Amino acid sequence: MHDINDMLVFAQVVKAKSFSDAAKRLGVSKSLVSKSVSRLETKLGVRLLQRSTRRLSLTEVGEAYFEHCDRILDELALADSTISRLHMEPRGKLKISASVAFGTLHIAPALADFMAQYPDISVDMTISDRIVDLVDEGYDIALRITTEPALNLVARRLAPIRRKICASPRYLAKHGIPLTPDDLIRHNCLDYTYLNTQGFWHLKGPDGDASIPVSGTLRINDDEALSQAVLGGLGLALLPTFIVGKDLQAGGLVEVLPGYGPVERFLHAVHLPDRHLPLKVRAFIEFLSARFGTEPYWDRQEAVA
């Protein structure tokens, strides 16, 4: 395999038409330039340059080889320039993984603003509740809702993910408003099966932790479907505010037992450890952090326009 440095030196000698001038351009000694060209000729087994005291000229083989060298060195310069531009400003394809509900409701709607801000970034997003392997599947970043991210990944906390006990005004008008956690026992409490509560709601509140036995006429494995059942007046449920925030703000749902809820989780942006985090990843994380803020728009008391 040819030494790129020797090729570079040879090309400079040809362009300068002098060992001395090439040495000055490269900032090295003339003897080093001469040794480099001789080493290249030895490796190739041909003479590239005709040397004389008065002039320097290319052999026929040297002329053909120089054309290839010049093309290769131009490609290397272009590659260096591309890498430099990638490090100077966010660009390239950003591969993202996000959960179905959060990705659909909050990440997909944000992409238009993000890509308008960074027009040189294209996005390849997978919507799935499956935990993807960032290494094997080539993802730049995954957005995960969890209490504790995996230790082998770098995680940036972006927003709190809260669940509130919710019911429709129609249900509460008919069945009454629970005033204490124990009152839930007498209500139709609908279960989200992925919480694995097994007939209990584990709540944290102003009086400490409580495990309340609950029962109801519906168990379902999808939060958005569950929220529709609650909006229809079927019963109460622990619903994530990133799904029902607008309904709470508009009055379609009412929070029951304010201050009581399960352990708070968080949305994290996770990526592989990298001292040189690509600017496209850094830009996306900072964009989402600014968009969600310290109090996400779905948790504010008033609707955000």
Question: Could you say which overall geometry the principal axes of the C-alpha atoms support?
Answer: rod-shaped
Q: Report the span from N to C terminus.
A: 62 Å
CATH domain class of the largest domain: Alpha Beta
Q: What is the mean pLDDT?
A: 88
In the residues, how many domains can be counted? 3
Largest sheet: 5 strands, mixed
Low-confidence stretches: none
| Percent of sequence in beta strands | 15-25%
In order across it, which strands form the biggest sheet?
Answer: 4-3-5-14-6
Structure overview:
With 305 residues, the chain is an alpha/beta fold. The protein contains ten helices and 14 strands. A five-stranded mixed sheet has the order 4-3-5-14-6, covered by helices on one side. A five-stranded mixed sheet has the order 11-8-12-7-13. Strand 3, helix 5 and strand 4 form a beta-alpha-beta unit. The longest helix is centred in the first third of the chain and has 29 residues. Keywords: DNA-binding, Transcription, Transcription regulation. Belongs to the LysR transcriptional regulatory family. It comes from Aromatoleum diolicum.
Highlighted features:
single chain; 305 residues; alpha/beta; Arc Repressor Mutant, subunit A; D-Maltodextrin-Binding Protein, domain 2; 3 domains; 5-stranded mixed sheet; 10 helices; 42% helix; rod-shaped; LysR-type_TF_proteobact-type; transcription
